[in-house]
Predict the structure.
Amino acid sequence: MSESSATETVVVRTYVPAYQKSRWESHADDLEMSQSEYIRTMVQAGRKGFESDDEEPRSPDATPGGSDLETQVLDLLSSGTYNWEELLATVSDDIEGQLEDALDTLQAQDQVRYSGRHGGYVRTGETDGN
């Protein structure tokens, strides 16, 4: 396995009740963390009791109040050397995932929708006459 594929980030999706997501959002805000970083940290903390000694080391715990991007860069660089292009490709994959998650949430809340007629996403109720 190449060094870059071993640390490549990928999007993981799950569906939870709206009240649960709301609680997670609130707690993440309290900790000054992004939702992605908060959920990643919760999963890592929950796995502590299930990990065996032969598993790969986990990335360092998140730092509440720190920059999510800074944490991602530090996590990547703890496993090797990356050039600018490799770092950019890895962190922009995460931004694409965050944008997709945000659009999914906004569509589920009926705040935005995709309009083929307008060639992209629009706020709900703002497409008439535009």
